[in-house]
């Protein structure tokens, strides 16, 4: 049984189109796969809450959709910080408030979808099971749409690693002043069978045979010509 699972996963992997497999191997694709279980946990939470609100507590469909979305967003917020490897206290202005602002937009979409799907089910005089399937299915489809939208916003805006671009930026190019200040050495010609020489003279034992290359701009000005 343990060997069958890797075979099934390998077969399913090779059934995917090559461009999709290449994308899943990329940095964005890997992050997307880390966000999938986060979204699944949030969807399960919101779907269960939606069913409780409508069928057990008999709350209106619009309010039920918003409350269910809030419950799923709470789970999504905690797990999204794990998915993007965020540690420590979150920033209120850069992370917490933008996250809940995006969540409010998702709540509005899910609340509207739930309200109109439930109203349509009632107008069609659907039975309880059919009504539940229709409302839950519409809510799930809207959740999938908002899932993609939230991933794009979280990955490229909210949880984007803004420090990586600055770290990878190349430093300023060395100017002429830097090049003139750098020490440059050259080695004197070696005498066959003898020690290395410095400027044509034997170098003392244990001393480097290289000599500094003094540029014309670095030479001290000598005395002027005699008149």
Write structural notes for this entry.
By secondary structure, this protein is mainly alpha-helical. It contains eight helices and four strands. The chain has a two-stranded antiparallel ribbon with strand order 1-4. Strand 2 and strand 3 form a beta hairpin. Helix 2 packs across helix 3 (27-56), helix 3 (27-56) runs antiparallel to helix 4 and helix 5 (92-123) runs antiparallel to helix 6. The radius of gyration is 35 Å and the shape is globular. The model is unreliable at 163-187, 196-200 and 208-218 (pLDDT under 50).
Helix and strand string, N-terminal first?
Answer: HHHHHHHHEEEE
Radius of gyration from the alpha-carbon trace, in angstroms = 35 Å
Instruction: Give the proportion of residues in helices.
Output: 55-70%
| Straight-line distance between termini | 104 Å
Largest sheet: 2 strands, antiparallel
Helix/strand/pairing category: mainly alpha
Strand order of the largest sheet: 1-4
Residue runs with pLDDT of under 50 for 5 or more positions: 163-187, 196-200, 208-218
Number of strands: 4
Discrete helix count: 8
Task: Report the portion of residues in β strands.
Answer: under 5%
Offer a quick outline of the entry.
This protein is mostly helical. Helices cover 66% and strands 4% of the residues.
Keywords:
single chain, 227 residues, mainly alpha, two-stranded antiparallel ribbon, two-stranded antiparallel sheet, 8 helices, 4 strands, 4% strand, globular
Secondary-structure blueprint:
Elements: H1 4-15, H2 18-25, H3 27-56, H4 61-83, H5 92-123, H6 128-158, H7 162-168, H8 176-181, E1 185-187, E2 197-198, E3 201-202, E4 210-212
């Amino acid at each position: 049984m343990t060997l069958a699972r890797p075979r099934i996963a390998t077969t399913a992997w090779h059934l995917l189109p090559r461009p999709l497999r290449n994308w899943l191997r990329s940095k964005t694709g890997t992050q997307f796969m880390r966000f999938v279980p986060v979204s699944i946990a949030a969807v399960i939470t919101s779907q269960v809450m939606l069913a409780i609100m409508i069928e057990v507590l008999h709350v209106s469909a619009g309010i039920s959709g918003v409350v269910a979305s809030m419950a799923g967003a709470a789970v999504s917020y905690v797990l999204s910080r794990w998915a993007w490897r965020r540690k420590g206290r979150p920033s209120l202005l850069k992370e917490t408030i933008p996250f809940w602002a995006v969540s409010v937009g998702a709540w509005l979409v899910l609340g509207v979808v739930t309200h109109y799907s439930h109203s349509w089910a009632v107008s069609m005089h659907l039975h309880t099971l059919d009504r539940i399937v229709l409302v839950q299915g519409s809510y799930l489809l809207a959740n999938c749409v908002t899932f993609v939208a939230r991933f794009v916003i979280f990955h490229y805006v909210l949880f984007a690693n803004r420090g990586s671009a600055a770290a990878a930026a190349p430093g300023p190019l060395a100017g002429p002043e830097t090049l003139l200040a750098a020490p440059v050495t050259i080695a004197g010609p070696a005498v066959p069978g003898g020690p290395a020489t410095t400027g044509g003279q034997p170098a003392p034992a244990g001393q480097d045979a290289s000599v500094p290359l003094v540029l014309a701009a670095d030479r001290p000005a000598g005395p002027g010509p005699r008149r």
